[in-house]
TrEMBL record:
Leader sequence segment: none
GO terms for MF: ATP binding; ATP hydrolysis activity; transmembrane transporter activity
Protein name as catalogued: Putative ABC transport system ATP-binding protein
Keyword Nucleotidyltransferase annotated: no
InterPro entries found in the cross-reference section: AAA+_ATPase, ABC_transporter-like_ATP-bd, ABC_transporter-like_CS, MacB-like_ATP-bd, P-loop_NTPase
Keyword Zinc-finger: no
Origin organism lineage: Bacteria, Pseudomonadati, Bacteroidota, Cytophagia, Cytophagales
Family membership: Belongs to the ABC transporter superfamily. Macrolide exporter (TC 3.A.1.122) family.
Organism: Cecembia calidifontis
Domain ABC transporter: start-end pairs: 5-239
Annotated keywords: ATP-binding, Nucleotide-binding, Translocase, Transport
Any Gene Ontology CC annotation: membrane protein complex
Length: 240
């Protein structure tokens, strides 16, 4: 199994004036290519902080982070931005779509940074939307879609660059339970295709789709266990 993520004794301290918060006290974890992992734990336990470091949106105060064989601990902001664009697809609780842009434009956005021409961007974005079952919504604006459809647009955007890792922080946090399960079906399918997925969730039944569950508490890994019987998805085609 190829190691894709390795953190060694990662610490993160936030300073706000005289106050210090130790969001991560010491986190050492490894994730192999193709794994499907859920991060759980109470609010404030450090889940988002760890996801942001893994996604190169933030850097640890100390410790080593190796992503895809590269030590990213001491990289410049430019180098980190490049890695983010190439290696990571982000999915957020609040979707983070541009409200005035069409679905196609939203999904094509990461391809602008990656340097593709317009025709190629539109073709790739269209394919990505088709892959999440939204091939007939390319010209819609986000506010013309349901919450689940918006999250699927965000997932298409996360995948359009063919990243090695998908990071999803509470991806179903703003969705009703039926729609949440639809999104989990999609994640299941992505995992089947070989994508590496890490998601943060509060909900046991959502976490149960993952094949491994890491629990954080007070900035430490409290437990890290294999899920012997992950929830199996239907196929996206069956969702309609
Ligand atoms: P979780 O996602 O598990 O709820 P977070 O990683 O968001 O936890 O937060 C961990 C701790 O770090 C919390 O005490 C939180 O208040 C603090 N924290 C998170 N982000 C910041 C920040 N940008 N500045 C200061 N403190 C922060
Ligand atoms: Mg969080």
């Amino acid at each position: 199994m190829k190691k894709i993520i390795e953190t060694k004794d990662i610490k993160k301290t936030y300073r706000m004036g005289a106050e210090e918060v130790q969001a991560l006290k010491s986190v050492s974890i490894e994730v192999n290519k193709g794994e499907y992992v859920a991060f759980m734990g109470p609010s404030g336990s450090g889940k988002s902080t760890l996801m942001n470091i893994i996604g190169c949106l933030d850097t640890p105060t100390s410790g080593i982070y190796i992503l895809n064989g590269k030590d990213v601990s001491d990289m410049s902001e430019n180098e980190l931005a490049e890695i983010r664009n190439k290696e990571i697809g982000f999915v957020f609780q609040t979707f983070n779509l541009l409200p005035r842009a069409s679905c196609l434009e939203n999904v094509a956005l990461p391809l602008i940074y990656a340097g593709y021409g317009k025709a190629e961007r539109e073709e790739k974005a269209f394919q990505a939307l088709k892959n999440v079952g939204l091939g007939d919504r390319v010209n819609h604006k986000p506010n013309e879609l349901s919450g689940g459809q918006r999250q699927r647009v965000a997932i298409a955007r996360a995948l359009v660059n063919d990243p090695s890792i998908i990071l999803a922080d509470e991806p179903t946090g703003n969705l009703d339970s039926k729609t949440s399960y639809d999104i989990m079906e999609l994640f299941h399918e992505l995992h089947q295709k070989g994508n590496t997925i890490i998601m943060v969730t509060h909900e046991d039944d959502i976490a149960h789709y993952a094949h491994r569950i890491v629990r954080l508490r007070d900035g430490l890994v409290e437990s890290d266990t294999v899920n012997p019987n992950p929830t199996r998805g239907k196929t996206v085609a069956a969702i309609g």
